[in-house]
Amino acid sequence: MPNHNELELKVANVSRRGFLTGIAAGSLVLAIGLPSGANAQEQKFGADGMPNGWRDDPKIFVSISPDGLVTVTCHRQEMGQGVRTSIAMVVADELDADWSKVRVAQAQGDEARYGNQDTDGSRSLRHFFMPMRRAGAAARTMLEQAAAAQWGVPVQEVRAREHAVLHERTGRRLDYGALATAAASQPVPTRETFKLKDPSAFRYIGKDRIGLVDNQDITTGKAVYGIDARTDGMLYAVVARPPVFGGRVRSVDDAETLRIPGVVRVVQIAPPNIPSEFQPLGGVAVVARNTWAAMQGRDKLKIVWDDGPHASYSSDTYRAELEAAARKPAKVVRRHGDVDAAMAKSAKRVEAEYYIPHLTQAPMEPPAALVQIKDGKCEAWACVQAPQATRTRLSERLGIPEENVTVNVTLLGGGFGRKSKPDFVLEAGLISQTMGGTPVKVTWTREDDLHHGYYHTVSVERLEAGLDERGMPVAWLQRSAAPTIGSIFAPDPKHELPFELGMGLVNAPFAVPNVRMENPEATAHTRIGWFRSVSNVPHAFAIQSFVAELAHAAGRDPKDYLLDLIGPARIIDPTEIGDAWNHGEDPKLYPIDTGRLRQVIESAAAGIGWGRSLPQGHGLGIAGHYSFVSYVAVAAEVRVDGDRLVIPRVDIAIDCGPRINPDRIRSQMEGAVVMGVGLATTSEISFKNGRVEQNNFDSYEVTRIDTTPREIHVHLVASHDYGQPLGGVGEPGLPPVAPALANALFAATGKRIRQLPIRDQFLA
Amino acid sequence: MRSFVLSGAMLIIGLSHAQAQDAAAGEKVFAQCRACHQMGENAKNAVGPHLNGLFGRTAGSVEGYNYSPANKNSGITWDEAVFREYIQNPRAKIPGTKMVYAGLKDEQRINDLIAYLKQFDATGKKQ
User: Which residues fall in a coiled-coil region (chain A) (predicted)?
Assistant: First the structure.
């Protein structure tokens, strides 16, 4: 079929950040308008397609001290996913290091040195497993060369084993510490000259042998997060930001603020130009000797705001706008066959409309940053997912050359996409600059985080299917209406970008002969940003709910119906079904394999005991979704207990290709289920008169212990074939959770959920 | 003899009463509540509602706080006796409350906590 996304191909092929950099330079239009002359050589995928790509130089990532301690530098950010452990584990395995002698150092933001550092898109291991293996293997080879030179024997006669190099013929042995200095002066071997381990010799990779390197520090309170950053002589600031996006200060009276003991100064931050990208929202900062005084001072500010162009943004009326847009023909983003003709001839038609509200990442640690400027040099300590972007934006905004900007990354108390945007670090930088370079820490309260986020989009998904006599769809029409993330980078775009459409919409791998998908216009009235698994959330909720509705209409079992809709195991080239983006990966290396999707669905179903008889008021639901080049299915059991929804059990199955750190895969799946329960049942950001209506965790409700599923079972369908490409792990667990729960609730109560969150809809 | 026994009993009651009213110790107990609840003149609703003027107030009545239906419809008016029962096992007293707290079992610590809470009137001023 003709590629309808041809013009957008170029944007699709530059990575998330490359795409941002392009827009920052004012070249979004250029990027989209580039001739897509299909120059295959120019197309870069995976880590090659990311800004600054990858490095595998052992001298960058591995150091060994004379006492034998190995330090692995982790250039990706730790936000609970365990990347510091997993990266170090991969290096240590190829290095044949003793794990008890391995430490992890955190890299500063410097992509020229480390390669891409954007910790997002479920990419850390997917893109760096092989480079990190090579870094470890090269370092091991250098140790072997150093030992062979010292003993005067051919390097082929020696081998590294458990933190030492052995010469078996003579029984000689030198441990890594003794070889460290000599190894460092060995030439770095070229990739062709050293051997990677045979996977059968892996000691850590794919095993469950080691816990998190940060566990001890985290559990004893020693771990340093952005919110903990301290330095001598620092001041503390909080910021009163415009309550409406795009607003600005009309006047401010700070007389009472300055009377609060401890308050040092009140500083204005200019509002950003629109589109605002990663720039701060502007407002009034109160700088004080401690956070408490700053907060007290902020309470006493008398600010008159000009609310700007989004002062009437209200979620209820906006929903009506999206619904109206979704009920009319719109821009076609995928087309197969003739939907209208097939629909007209179908035996039965089913339609449904789903609403998925704004969400916010709500990391347990709100944004926080400490910045100082001294002798023309800027240094930041912050919980950021993208330290390189933080560095370039600090450089640009403060007018300090990039080489004089240092970004130190703390642990992140959760990120989920919020901390990909360094607006909060820029606030600290601007305030410090105004204060003559004094170190200033900016603290965001929970309320600040909920009121001034980069929100997950809000969507109306309208679906219509025409069924044949057997109840299977012959026509599928879907309209997805949602404001785009592109709106923070470009002036007023109206359509979803290829990476948003490619998140579970146009690449839905169903065996339906006639498909048309459309993307109506939608205008953004707040900052839209990445939220864990991004547009997969609304697309998976709508599609997987609708499939269950079709199964019901056809009088069939939802699991069997879902499998029939996916069809037989086959390989689909995503570009042939309209997804030119494919999560940035090579469609030849990463085609959609419906057999793998089928298998996770079967695994989750088997896990929960699909088809078993249930007590009154219980129900089972299932959903399967492909995202971040991994396959995940969720089967859930729910029970309605009076006016409460209880979740006795969830089974989640993932196929993410070869397993690197199974303990972390399980943890990420468990975390996805817990987060998914929150967004399915209680979480919602709503606006009224441009203002967010939720203030704290009483009104933005995330999953609490009493609503967490009683049991979560993770099934790893992951392989041990390390020659296969890796899938993502951090995000793909989330999308199928909400539809599985909603489908289970339908089975339990007969009440169909067409809007999130569920709250008490099952009582109505 | 009779008066001696009485005064002895009164002495013991007096002692235990003095222990029961240790608001300073109660402030330390409150440290674990502070993750969600605020007290004092600047107190705001956060994860939980502020607790100024708790005793005498109706459950679910603080303006601007989003209570669970269970709490809002509990019909409880907070007094010492009902609070004592509640805080030992909140989810037993109000099934469906969203307050996630396993419970405070130690009677002395409950006494201290009550003494601490009682110091604050509805405006958050210490009495």
Answer: none
Q: Do A698 and B96 touch (CB under 8 A)?
A: no
Residues of A in contact with B64 (CB under 8 A): 695
A9, pLDDT greater than 80: no
The size of the A-B interface in CB pairs under 8 A is: 33
Contacts 24+ apart (CB under 8 A), A189-192: A189/A138, A189/A141, A189/A142, A189/A145, A191/A56, A191/A134, A191/A138
Label residue A229 by pLDDT band (50, 70, 90): very high
* Mean pLDDT of the residues in chain A: 94
Respond yes or no on whether ipTM tops 0.85.
Answer: no
Residues near B9 by beta carbon (within 8 Å), at least 6 away in sequence: none
* Chain A residues 624-683 within an 8 A CB cutoff of chain B: 642-644
Q: List the domain range (segments joined by +) for residue B40.
A: 2-118
Nearest CB neighbour to B98, from listed A446, A643, A704: A704
pLDDT at B1 over 80: no
Please tell me the predicted confidence (pLDDT) of residue A6: 32
Q: Which residue has the higher pLDDT, A259 or A23?
A: A259
A701 in reach of chain B (CB within 8 A)? yes
Chain A residue at shortest CA distance from B43: A296
C-alpha separations of B75 from B36, B69, B71, B101 in Å: 23, 11, 8, 20
Query: What domains, with CATH codes, occur in chain A?
Result: 6-43 (no CATH), 58-209 (3.30.365.10), 226-309+367-443 (3.30.365.10), 315-360+454-763 (3.30.365.10)
CATH number at residue B61: 1.10.760.10
Residue B123, domain member (yes or no): no
Contact A706 B98 (CB under 8 A): yes
Predicted pLDDT of residue A611 = 96
Q: In chain B, which residue's Cα lies nearest the Cα of A699?
A: B66
Q: Please, which residues bridge with residue A692 across strands?
A: A687
Residue B126 lies in a domain: no
Residue in B closest to A297 by C-alpha: B42
Judged by CB atoms closer than 8 Å, whether chains meet at B46 and A446 is answered as yes
In a domain, B80, yes or no: yes
Q: Which two tokens stand for residue A474?
A: 């012959």
Under DSSP, is residue B1 helix (H, G, I), strand (E, B) or coil? coil
Low-confidence winner among A273-277, A716-720, A721-725 (lowest mean pLDDT): A716-720
The tokens of B94 are what?
């109000």
- Length reported for chain B: 127
Q: What is the DSSP string of A230-261?
A: --TT-EEEEEE--SSTT-EEEEEE-HHHHTST
Instruction: Provide the shortest C-alpha distance from residue A696 to chain B (in Å).
Output: 6
| Residue B45: closest C-alpha in chain A | A696
Which pLDDT score, from 0 to 100, does residue A31 have?
33
Residue A8 predicted with pLDDT over 80: no
A-chain residue closest to B69, CA distance: A643
B49:A698 CB<8 A: yes
List residues in chain B touching A: CB distance below 8 A.
42, 45-49, 64-67, 69, 91, 96, 98, 100
A696: nearest CB among B46, B96, B100: B46
Q: Which of A10-24, A81-95, A255-269, A418-432 has the lowest mean pLDDT?
A: A10-24
Kindly determine whether residue A696 and residue B49, on different chains, have CB atoms separated by under 8 Å.
no
The three-point CA angle A14-A19-A25 to 5° equals 130
Is B127 domain-assigned?
A: no
Kindly state the tokens that stand for A109.
């933001």
Instruction: Return d(Cα A733, Cα A651) in angstroms, integer.
Output: 11
Task: Please indicate whether, in this complex, the C-beta atoms of B100 and A704 are within 8 angstroms of each other.
Answer: yes
In 3D, which of A679, A625, A629 has the Cα closest to residue A652? A625
- The string of pLDDT tens digits covering residues A604-623 is 999 999 999 999 999 999 99
Per the structure, the count of domains in chain B is: 1
Q: How close B8 comes to chain A (CA, Å)? A: 48
